[in-house]
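Repro:
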Amino acid sequence: MSIEHVLQQNISKAIEALYGAAVEVASIKLETTNADFEGDYTFVVFPYLRTSKKNPEQTATDIGGFLKENCAEVGDFNVVKGFLNLVISQSYWLNTFYSTVVPNADFGRTTAGKGHKVMVEYSSPNTNKPLHLGHIRNNLLGYSVSQILEFNGYEVVKANLINDRGIHICKSMLAWQKFGNGETPQSSGLKGDHLVGKYYVEFDKHNKSLLAKILEEVNDKNFTSIDSDSDKEKLTILLNKLAVEQDDESIKKFKDELKDLCEKHTALLKEAQEMLRKWEAGDEEVMNLWKTMNGWVYEGFDATYKRLGVNFDKFYYESQTYLLGKEIVQEGLDKGVFYRQEDSSVWIDLTAENLDKKLLLRRDGTSVYMTQDLGTADKKYEEYGCDKSVYVVGNEQDYHFKVLFSILKKMGKSYADGLFHLSYGMVDLPSGKMKSREGTVVDADDLMDEMHSTARELTMELGKIEGFNAEEQTELFETLGLGALKYFLLRVDPVKRLLFDPKESIDFAGNTGPFIQYTHARICSLLKNIEESGFKTGTDMPTNVLPHERDMIVWLAQFPKVVEDAGRDYNPALIASYTYELAKLYNRFYHDSPVNKEPDAVLKSFRVLLTQATGRVLKQGLRLLGIKAPERM
């Protein structure tokens, strides 16, 4: 039984004994005591003043006195107005440490999700370019949440839905056909995803050149390149508006509309659209090129995933799922949840849910992304029967997932209540926002290389590689560089946008991955020295420990609750924050409580056990974040 539940039970008994009122144990709220006051837990008495018929201070004093007298776990208390601060006895914390923390090699693991299955879908890349910084945050979040859920007892399925079809990959394919001269990853020395991304940029470059010519013609009212009478009419109206408009914002809006209309008519884009039509028709030549270039991309992705330390149990491909959902549309029509317009398109009205009307099937019978997602959600449930399904997708898709989940609930899908969108904010670098089409994407592989180099530079400056051979040094730089990257991205609440600074992330003295990794290595070094000295730990408890040692025991005891909270909220930042605080507490302990030089055998044994437990929990915390814990530095 947790200390929180023990306190809740005894507070309930106190209120009944003192004031004759029965209070449900579950209704009693406890808070962590403010750091400015002495105490471990705080009970706010204001809601119980009608029951006590006394002022806040007296009520808190009465309950505190009862607990100190009748609850062995409460060593002392103090009252600040209506706040009862409870000090848990040192004997309780020591008993907890020796009985729960010390003997449990897997301390922190919970059974919160036992008997439940959850799918975590993350990464979801397009096959026309390499993974970028935004994908790194996505992958790290998805993988870490999966690790945390597994540690909470869930059966976890890690899924990746790859967007392997559509106009984007056709642009890369067409550009390679036209300008590639048969170039391959082998002949170019480029990773496959980088090679395909190169031709996506190449398409954009040539298309921009064609677009510029069309814009020049249209501005001269020459519509030779425009093969749509409707678009010619729209362009004429826009040109007339631009001729008289004075407002800068309106001028920009009209120019953007003009550009978008003209872009539809570039010869290159039309060829890409024709290639997409051939793909959908199963054209053999197009399909073979598609398979070849996607194969290059997958080899590149696999290398990036391996280096990043993430993996998947199941891959879904949009080329295999994009036709799914049409049966659901018919089901929705049969149930009266969807409706058909006069032009045969199918819609759902979600205005009652403060959403919009949503198109689900075009008038020509082709599906939209929402239709595909409905079908894929059904397919995933049929295959795995998960109680929960977590979609790790950026916050620009918030509205999409509100609509998706709302539709599935209105359809009466049994799994709909278990769906969750883990939304996250964009990652910026000091140089600015990530971009893609212009060829200035912040590439994941390049960023990992930079992190490795930065870790090497700082580690060499600090002289933390004594006794390492060249291979070990390389491994250490990679471990620290990626540890810095992962921790920096995961320490921030997912919903927040963040600015990633590579150099700041590798500060060995700050709130960083390398600081925690260094603390773990320091612990391993100390324990190795103790083992070599022949010292053996015992089971006798010390009669008294120093305040900062007590603080460490209290913090260690919180680990299972933090793990459970992080799993409930799908939030690795809780693990990161906990692990950093533990590392800080240990470093203070390391300086203020000598271990090897302690003459008292019982106290020395306690400090060794405390060091061992801290090392295990630090390593476990880092593992849940997908970070390696080095034993030497």
